[in-house]
Amino acid sequence: MQQPVRIAPSILSADFARLGEEVRAIDAAGADWIHVDVMDGHFVPNITIGPGVVKALRAHTDKPFDVHLMISPVDPFLEAFAEAGADTITVHPEAGPHLHRTLQAIKALGKRAGVSLNPATPAKMLDYVLEEVDLVLVMSVNPGFGGQSFIESQLGKIEAIRNRIEKLGKPIDLEVDGGIDAATAARAIGAGADVLVAGTATFRGGPDAYAANIAALRAS
Ligand code: DX5
Ligand code: ZN
């Protein structure tokens, strides 16, 4: 069942020099989850933050940490992110080599497991793992950077995955990430998404605007 929409601001668009304060500000402004984009300069063409930063941020909020790992290999780092305080750990099938094993490892660490599909990655990648996951993350931009434009073709993929989740009858979250603003949020929700990641649309205008920015996404 499509659940009430949850908003997961991506701290990729926060002021990295004041990250703790930024996390407290989006918590107070109504964020449901904190989305953490981890990039390695290899799987994606950008480098962001590691488990040490996640651990340091853990003291700044009680909201769930939604950790999106865009790194390869990924298995050697799962434990560090789990210990740092991740609640959901999401991986890309291409991070390899064995997606099913990676998902089992995340669950063995006591964390929720997610799979993320890049724009060119078909929903078919979920065929033998959907039952194992707590969350599916549809990338509506190519991973690596905030501030990119929403890729329309991903709406069809969101619809297809929503249908599969309904057939399965499990409460799997369907999250969309990239180019989300009030207009694209409404379309993604219409297609079946129930978690919205938003970097640019949350952080634009500075701390005084965060609550209104998050409310605008929720209202969509
Ligand atoms: C992209 C990241 C996204 C990104 C979203 O690789 O996974 O979470 O920060 O940023 P916006 O909302 O600015 O498109
Ligand atoms: Zn992300």
Provide an overview of this structure:
This protein has an eight-stranded parallel beta sheet with strand order 1-8-7-6-5-4-3-2. It has eight helices and eight strands; from the N terminus they run βαβαβαβαββαβαβαα. The chain has a single domain (6-219), classed as Alpha-Beta Barrel (TIM Barrel), CATH 3.20.20. The model has no long low-confidence stretch (mean pLDDT 98). With 220 residues, the chain is α/β, with parallel strands linked by helices. Zinc ion is lined by residues 10, 35, 37, 68, 177, 197. D-xylitol-5-phosphate binds next to strand 2, strand 8 and helix 7.
Short characterization:
The chain is of the alpha/beta class and 220 residues long.
Indicate the proportion of strand residues.
15-25%
Q: How many angstroms does the end-to-end distance come to?
A: 19 Å
- How many helices does DSSP assign? 8
Shape label: globular
CATH topology: TIM Barrel
* Strand elements, count: 8
Q: Output the CATH homologous superfamily.
A: Aldolase class I
Helix content: 25-40%
Calculate the mean pLDDT score and round it: 98
Biggest sheet strand line-up: 1-8-7-6-5-4-3-2
Top CATH class: Alpha Beta
Q: Which CATH architecture would you pick?
A: Alpha-Beta Barrel
**Helix/strand/pairing category:** alpha/beta
- Spans of at least 5 consecutive residues with low confidence: none
Q: What compounds are bound to the protein?
A: D-xylitol-5-phosphate, zinc ion
| Alpha carbon gyration radius | 16 Å
**What does the largest sheet look like?**
8 strands, parallel
The ordered string of helix (H) and strand (E) elements is EHEHEHEHEEHEHEHH
